């Protein structure tokens, strides 16, 4: 089963039964995502195709027991570096409600809190809007994070209007550093290879994405809860991930140590939101 949303400018295809994955994104007839030829690719390499929701956490968590908010969190590694990465919902089937919202309920396992994640997608003219929520279903506080992880095609030029950055998503320092060198992307430029970092967003300034070979440009804006923007450009993959998210890398460690940018601690029945808008336009 797939869901298609389209206008005369933008078309998106999502796969509810495969983690509500963003399978295809086109603008002015040009494919902009890393879309596989076979659906089996999502099973073999789930973190390197299309675009997927990260919840109830983003980035890496140590795959070992930890006491958090009065409960024991004990996750199984799902990545080659031995960590638990990018949450749970990307690997679960989502249901589609009568009003077109995709929804999944999970938790109560190695992640001992039950939660609900939802997505509402809207396409109008040149605008793609994706509204994500993560809601705590427990009667006690729950650590929480949410993000989206699309892989965009190359060649890609970017502008990331940020003055501070966590230079490594693998083992980040407690505090961000000023941008410099290849991590200073405040002016439009080709995406440098082999970055894996997270920038601290500066207010509501949008990220600019430009595909020079097909003449398409996109302005990416995320809501106020998305205070961080991760970007990864592994040369082994040949595509670029641009990931709005609600917390900095190593978010559990940050929460436990009182470092800035940690996972949020959601009250019972409270929600965390991630609204992402992409507006596309042509250029010569």
Proportion of residues in extended strands: 35-45%
Structural class of the secondary elements? mainly beta
CA-atom Rg in angstroms = 18 Å
* Tally of alpha and pi helices: 2
Low-confidence blocks of residues: none
Q: From the coordinates shown, what is the CATH architecture?
A: Distorted Sandwich
Helix content class: under 10%
User: What shape does the CA trace take?
Assistant: globular
Strand order of the largest sheet: 10-11-12-13-26-22-21-16-19
Q: What is the CATH class name?
A: Mainly Beta
| CATH topology call | Beta-galactosidase, Chain A, domain 5
Distance between the termini: 37 Å
Count of the domains: 1
Number of beta strands: 26
Order of helices and strands: EEEEHEEEEEEEEEEEEEEEEEEEEHEE
Major β-sheet profile? 9 strands, antiparallel
Q: What's the overall average pLDDT, rounded?
A: 96
Describe the 3D structure:
The structure is a single chain. The chain has two helices and 26 strands. With 284 residues, it is mainly beta. The chain has one domain (3-282): Beta-galactosidase, Chain A, domain 5 (Distorted Sandwich). The protein has a nine-stranded antiparallel beta sheet, with no helix packed on it. Strands 5-15-24-23-20-17-18 form a seven-stranded antiparallel beta sheet, with no helix packed on it. A four-stranded antiparallel beta sheet has the order 1-2-3-4, with no helix packed on it. The relative contact order is 0.18.
